[in-house]
Amino acid sequence: MWRGLYTAAAGMMTQENRTGVIANNLANVNTTGYKRDRALDAEFRPMLIRRINDDLPIKVTDFKGFSLDRRPPAVGTLGLGSYTDEIAVDHAPGNFMTTGNPLDLAISGNGFFVIDTPEGPRYTRNGNFYRAVNGDLVNSDGRAVLSRQGRPINIPENAANIIVTAEGGVYADGAQLGMLGFVEFDGDPRALLKQGDSLFYPQAGAEPQQATGAIQQGVLERSNANVVNEMVDLITNYRIYEANSKAVTTQDTMLDHSVNEVGRL
Fold first, then answer.
1. HSE-up of 100 (CA within 13 Å, CB side)?
2. Where are the domains of the chain?
């Protein structure tokens, strides 16, 4: 019975983690370029159980007390609960929203923009960019958008007719101002980890390379989290949590009877 308590409690902890992930997805359904998280569960290694105190029948392989297999017969396996194995990022594309702003950029296919941060270059799908007071192209947090050479891209104050090509070339009045840093990581979704603020950082050994996607101007990529799907997952998660909670209550009641009634006999 103790094992049943631990198994049910492990299930409750797993669903609690999943609830936190779903709540974060719901909070970011309107965040530009946000990629939803998924809680992936795994099962603790099951335990093989056997019958004990069995009167084993004599086998034809028995001879003068020697047997090829004298172990009690196996009953089956016993599950020991689950745990959250990984919080994975779903890199499926979000829907595009047309804004008409020449500095709003979206990526069709694979690719990330490169952002300058105090921790080093970081990568994002959020192309909601602005022109700073000093003329540098920055994101919504005021961090510089880097070029292929790792430098900020400066837009003159009187610049007009700003054009951004599919490859990342930035032009104003026909003159090229620079090439946006536009990279991917060999198509491996696990190469990048979430940092926050729609930014990703690479795992050790992951090297950026030129992206194979295309940049679209005057468009933003919306979050790929869907309110309806997340709410369905939340309700399902609640039902599973409730079932585990009832299992804990049942196990506790059985222990109470074992200690206070069976023990008295």
1. 0
2. 2-55+72-90+234-260, 96-221
Long-range contacts of 223-226 (CB under 8 A, 24+ apart): 223/28, 223/29, 223/30, 223/31, 223/32, 223/33, 223/34, 223/35, 223/36, 223/94, 224/34, 224/35, 224/36, 224/90, 224/92, 224/93, 224/94, 225/25, 225/26, 225/28, 225/29, 225/34, 225/36, 226/29
Q: How many separate helices (H) and strands (E) can be counted in the chain? A: 2, 19
Query: Strand (E) positions, 28-79?
Result: 37-43, 47-50, 74-78
The interaxial angle of helices 2-27 and 227-257, nearest 10 deg, is 160
Note the pLDDT tens digit of each residue in 204-261.
Answer: 888 899 999 999 999 999 999 999 999 999 999 999 999 989 888 888 788 777 777 7
Provide DSSP, 81-140. -EEEEEEEE--PPPPEEE---TTBEEEESS-EEEEEETTEEEEES--B-EE-TTSBEE-T
Please name the amino acid found at residue 257. H
Instruction: Give the alpha-carbon dihedral of 179, 184, 186, 188, to 10 degrees.
Output: 180
Taking CA atoms, 47 is separated from 44, 77, 216, in Å, by 9, 5, 54
- On whether the CB atoms of residues 37 and 21 are closer than 8 A, the answer is yes
> What's the mean pLDDT in 27-55?
82
